[in-house]
Structure formats: C-alpha cells, structure tokens
Write a structure and sequence with these properties.
The chain is mainly alpha-helical and 239 residues long. Helices cover 67% and strands 0% of the residues. It contains eleven helices and no strands. Helix 7 packs antiparallel against helix 8 (138-160) and helix 8 runs antiparallel to helix 11. The longest helix has 32 residues, at 200-231. It is globular. The structure holds protoporphyrin IX containing FE. Residues 57, 59-62, 64-65, 120, 123-124, 127, 130, 132-133, 137, 140-141, 144-145, 147-148, 151, 222, 225, 229, 235-236 line the site of protoporphyrin IX containing FE.
C-alpha cells in the first residue's frame, strides 16, 4: 500500500535526525523524549507528587520567570522606538502614545517589572517559610539572593530611561545616598553615573546595563538556578 505524505515525513532520515525517539507511546520512549529534547531536558523525567501541589510553591518562581520573559519581549520592542540620548529619550517615550498599541507596550513592560519585584520577593518568602534554604539547597539560596539583587538593579536602571522629572530626581537622590558610603562614596557615585551628576553618561550607562548586561547575567544565573533545583532532587519538602 502507498504510504501517506505524513508517514513518509515521519520515517524520513531528516525527521529522525531531529526527533530521535519517535512517537512516545511507552514509558521508556517518554523518558528518552525528555532527555533528548533541548527544551524539555530541564524538566525531571519523574517528580514527587507533592512538588506539583500548587499551594506548596504557588508557582511563584515560575511566574517570576514568565514575567522576565514578558519583560524581555516588550523590552526588545521598546528598544526599536527609544534612543538613549538626553535630547531624545523623553520625546521618544511621549511619542509612544501616538503609535498603535504603544501605551499598552509601555505599560505591559512597566507592570511586568513591578510584578516581578513582588513575585521574586514572595518566592523568597515561600522558600524561607518552607525552609528550602537548608542543605543541599543553600547554594541555590545564594544564587537566588543574586537574582533578587539583579531584579532590583533592573528596576533601578530602568527608572532613569524615560528621562522625566521623576526619573532624574529618583536617580539623583539614589546616587547621592550612595555617595555617603564611608570612604568609597564619591568613587561609587562616579562609577554609577560616569560623571559627577546625572547626565548623558549616566543615561547611556543605565541603558546598556538595563538592556544588555543585567538581563544577560540574570538569564545565566536563572539557568544555573533551575539546573540546581533539578540536581538537588527537585522541589524540597513536603513540609
Ligand atoms: C529572578 C528571580 C527568580 C526566579 C525566576 C526563580 C525561579 C525559581 C523556580 C522556577 C523554582 C522552582 C520552584 C518554584 O517555582 O518555586 C525556584 C526554586 C528555588 N528558588 Fe528561586 N527564583 C528566583 C529568585 C529566588 C530568590 C530571590 C531566592 C532566595 C533568596 C530563591 C531561592 C530558591 C530556592 C532555594 C529554590 C528551591 C526551592 C525548593 O526546593 O523548594 N530564588 N526558583
């Protein structure tokens, strides 16, 4: 009997070189599918039932990650419409209101950022409450602390970019507080601003940190964070 086109594709060498396991109709093939797939191999082949209980994690880590993805997508779209220069930044942000869905895009980015700060904090509270920082998860707790710092750093660097009064004075107040650090204060302030006061150098510095450096470091740390959850035997507990 002549084979259908779908059958011929499924049996072709090209298809089988990409999808090696075939139809996952047995437990072994289902496991192999997880191992051999780049996106799925982060998930364990088997996991404990309690780890799936919504009320244990409230999915707060996952929601934080989802918000991070939304921030990356909306952030990249905003980059097409924004110039990091003190002459243009403010007007570029105002012009967003004139383009189709521009305001929605800006607000999606803003609210996802606020949401991520809240969910990362609540995730940390949950981890603390379930005592999941104890061995063997103490290293993941430390990575988590860095992720919290990076999340706050993303918020802070993003705050200057609209280049309005709130942004200007918010960063001026923040960096003036930094300048009161004993001994190193003035150096820290200069390092953050690239000058003695908030200006073009600070805007460019914050832009590069906000759009490239911090998201990249956060993404690498998140990959290690998820990988450690796997290596530490999945979600902790039950309580
Ligand atoms: C960008 C920030 C973060 C993301 C995207 C993230 C993501 C996740 C995810 C998806 C899990 C799996 C379980 C769950 O969903 O709750 C997890 C577990 C964990 N996270 Fe985070 N996390 C972040 C920040 C933090 C912070 C701030 C801490 C603590 C200071 C932390 C410590 C931990 C620990 C110890 C576990 C293992 C918990 C367990 O086994 O019960 N994470 N994280």
């Amino acid at each position: 009997m002549k084979k259908g086109i779908l059958q011929r594709i499924l049996e072709s060498a090209v298809w089988r070189s990409i999808f090696r396991t075939g139809i996952p109709d047995t437990d072994l093939k289902r496991s192999m599918l997880m191992y051999n797939n780049f996106f799925l191999h982060i998930f364990p082949v088997k996991m404990k039932r309690h780890g799936l209980r919504f009320c244990y994690t409230f999915c707060l880590g996952g929601i934080s990650f989802l918000l991070f993805i939304i921030l990356c997508v909306t952030g990249i779209l905003l980059m097409f419409l924004y110039t990091p220069s003190i002459e243009r930044a403010y007007f570029d942000m105002q012009a967003l209101a004139l383009i189709f869905n521009g305001k929605i895009l800006r607000n999606l980015h803003r609210w996802a950022a606020h949401g991520m700060v809240v969910t990362v904090f609540l995730h940390m509270v949950r981890v603390f409450y379930t005592r999941s920082y104890r061995p063997p998860r103490e290293f993941n707790w430390v990575i988590g602390i860095w992720l919290l710092i990076l999340t706050l750093a993303l918020s802070y660097t993003g705050y200057l970019l609209p280049w309005d009064q709130l942004a200007y004075w918010g960063i001026t107040v923040g960096t003036t507080i930094m300048s009161y650090t004993p001994f190193l204060g003035k150096h820290i302030q200069y390092f953050v601003l690239g000058a003695d006061e908030v200006g073009h150098e600070a805007l460019l510095r914050f832009y590069v940190l906000h759009c490239a450096v911090i998201p990249f470091v956060a993404l690498v740390l998140m990959a290690i964070h998820f990988w450690r959850v796997r290596k530490d035997g999945g979600i902790s507990g039950p309580l």
